[in-house]
Fold this sequence. Notes:
Blueprint: E1 28-30, E2 39-41, H1 42-47, H2 63-70, E3 76-79, H3 97-108, E4 114-121, E5 124-131, H4 142-158, E6 162-168, H5 177-195, E7 200-208, H6 210-213, E8 222-225, H7 236-243, H8 254-259, E9 265-266, H9 269-285
Parallel strand pairs: 5-6, 6-7, 7-8, 8-9
Antiparallel strand pairs: 1-2, 3-4, 4-5
Amino acid sequence: MSWFKRQTEKIGEIAPPEERTVKTEGIFVKCDNEDCGATIYRKDLKENLNVCPTCGHHFRITAKERLHMLFDDGQYEERDSGIAPTDPLHFVDNSPYLDRLKKAQKATGLLDALVTGKGKLAGHEVVICAMEFNFIGGSMGSVVGEKITLAIEYCVEKRLPLIIVSCSGGARMQEGTLSLMQMAKISAALARLDDAGLPYISLLTNPTTGGVTASYAMLGDLNIAEPGAIIGFAGARVIEQTIRQKLPKGFQRSEFLLEHGMLDAVIDRRELRGFLADALAFTESNH
C-alpha cells in the first residue's frame, strides 16, 4: 500500500522570476590611451569635450562636433557644402575610388573630408574649416583644396580671420598629382590672405600628417595643437628605416614639436575657445 501519491495534475505553474539585465553597451567608453584605459561614463566624456577626465587624453571628434564646440552656441552657416569629388583618374586599387567615395559619404553624411563654417567665436566673426578624419582618413583631395581656397578668398573679400582645424593622413593618393597640386594652391591663397593683413590660425589635431603638414597646417600666423597629437610628414617607422636610427621618445607628438620650436602652443581642448578668443581679440586690436 502506497502512503504517498505523486501529484500529476498541474494545479498552477509557478512562473520563473523575470530575467533582469542591465544594458551597459554604449553607456561606457574605454580610454584610448594605453597607459590609462579608464572606463568613462559616455555622458561625462561628452560633457568634458571628449577629453578623458583621468589622464587628459583627447579623443578624436568629428568636423561638425568641432565646429559646434568652437562657434558661439554651436551656431554657424555652412559654406560651399555642395562641392562633390569626381574620379578623373578612374582609380582602382582594392576597390574603385568611386565606391570608396560612396561608402565614405554614406558613413559621414558629408560629400568630402572638410566642413567650412562662418559664425562667431566669443563674438568675433570668423571662418573655420574643419577636416573630417572619418572620410577616407581626412585625406586632402581636390574638393578639400577647393573648399579651403574658397574660404580664404571669402575671408579676403569680407576681411575675416581664418581658422583651419587639421586632422588628416595627408594627400589623397586616389587623385594622384591633382591632390598634390592642392598644397601649392592653398599655400598661394594663404599668401594672398597674408598680403591682405588678415590672421590665419592653424590648429593641428591627432593626426596631422603628410601633405597637409607639408603645406597649410604649418603656415599659420599662429600654429597650435592639441595635447598628444601626432604631427609629421612621413611615419615614424619609415623615418627609422630611412635613417637607420631609433627616434627619441615622443617624437612627432605635439609636445615634442613645441619643445623644438615647430609650434607656438599646445592647448587643452577645454581651454581652446578661450585661447582662440584671446588670439582673435589681439589681432583685431592690432588692425
